[in-house]
Each structure stands twice: as C-alpha cells, then as structure tokens.
Amino acid sequence: MNSLQSSSAVVMVRPHEFVSNPETRHDNAFQTLAHRSAEATSAAAREEHDRAVEHLRDAGVTVHVFDDHGQQNTPDSVFPNNWFSTHPGGHIAIYPMFVPSRRRERRTDVIELLKQEYRVQDVIDYSGLEQDDLALEGTGAMVLDHVGRIAYTVKSNRADPVLLERFCTNFNYEPIAFEARDDAGRDVYHTNVLMGIGTHYALICLDMIIDAERRATVQARLEESGRTVIDLSHDQIANFAGNTIELSGRDGLVLALSSRAKDALTPEQTDIIEDSATLLPLSVPTIETAGGSVRCMIAGIHLSRR
C-alpha cells in the first residue's frame, strides 16, 4: 500500500557509540542521562535499533540499514531524519545542522545508495550554510504535509527562517512557522516532538503553540486537509506521543511509535488512528534518553524505485 504522505521504504542508522549528546543537551528538554556505562548504553541502543528494524521489516516496510561505527564521534547518528530528506519527483535535500557533532553524521554512501536504487533527479545541499551559523534540521525541524504541501515549523535555533523560506521555495511547500513551549516554559527544539501527520489524522499538542491565532491556523489547516486532529497533552508529548511516523506496510498503513508513546495514548485516540492505520510500537527506552524517539530514527524515502 502506498500513500503520498507515508513512504514504504526508510533509511535507519545502527549506532555504535551512542550517548546522550552533551552538545545538544542545553536546548533539548527531552534528553536524560542513561545510568550505566557508555559500553552498556551503546549495546542497549544497538539492540533496540535492531529490534525496531526487525519489526518494521515484519510489517512489510523496506529498511536500508547503515552502520555508524563511531570513529567520528557522532553520538546522535541514530537520528538520520535531521540531515537529509527525500521528496516525490526525485528530489533530495541535505541540511545544515546546529552543532558540530551532528554535522559529521552526513555521509555520501546513503545518498549514493538512494541514487543507485531510486530515481533521483537532483540533490539540493544547504549544508554549506553552517559556515554562516544557519541550521534547518530536516524533518525534525519541519513536519511536512506532503499532500497539502505545508511545512509546519517551530521557530528555534534549529530552524532558520530564511533557510525555511528557501527550502519551501525550492521544494514547493508553504511555510507555517510558530513558537512553541512546554508546560515548564521551555522552547520546543524540534517540531517533530510535538506533532506527526498521517494520511487521515494528525497528532499534535495544540496547547504548546504560544500564539492563539497561530494555534487556530495550524488546527484549521490540518482539518482542511481532511484529517482528524488528535490533540495531545503536555504529558503525552513528554512521553514522545508526538514523535511518530506513518509508513506504508505490506497490509496497509502503520503508525510507528515507541512503546512508551503508545502507552501514553488514550483508548479514544488509539481508536481514531486504528480506523486507518495499525499501531506499530517499538521499544526504544535507551535511544529515547538522547531526546528523540521512533520518528527521529526513521528517514522516509519518498522516491520511486528504479
């Protein structure tokens, strides 16, 4: 089953030197410290990653796995959705990252595999703009409605407004940017922690959007697209219920999310999702200590096979 919103193939990166990244901790409120040795933490993250890949493949999703052996000090490499994205029509974007360790995650072998196995027309590389201290961290910074052509974006140091405009012009999206904070008043660092867009529904914590007018606009635009808006609570967001990705599996649409996120959803919310998609919970508690969850681990491939 294929959906314009939801890809049937993904890229994932297997971590070997996984830790909660000290460079990103100051503005990622979701990060916590794992209370065990670096070796044990890395081994647990690898196990979680491998199980997640297995479950996705069992559901009929094509998963291209790349190993990160950690020679370059890339503690967040398990989250590849931030440094590149793919788009129907054969387009790839490569993004500038906010901190140096995350810039080292970009790798040519991923792009080469995409060119070999899928139809790629062009690669637009924005990464040189890091020299000017500009960042736009891919589908972490932007949650893309591929059908309505909207890039929902939380304003932050991970999403430069000029770069957002440039991306939207190049890839034909309308930018809708807004400020968002958690219930402790901390700025949200990535849009994909507070919202995820499926084919027939959207998960979002509307209460995190500061400006009432902007909040109403976001809700209206999601509803105009024919989706049911599932309004999440702050507590559900803290449990990564917004950090989900809908994919096209063998037997239809699946919503990949962490076990913790699934447990945070109410029966009513689950029913709305299950009207059109099967929940696919993945257990990633160690990986979540780095401040990202299942959505961050998965880079969707919206390209046609060769």
TrEMBL record:
Pfam families: DDAH_eukar. NCBIfam families: citrull_CtlX. This is Amidinotransferase. It comes from Ruegeria atlantica. The lineage of its organism: Bacteria, Pseudomonadati, Pseudomonadota, Alphaproteobacteria, Rhodobacterales.
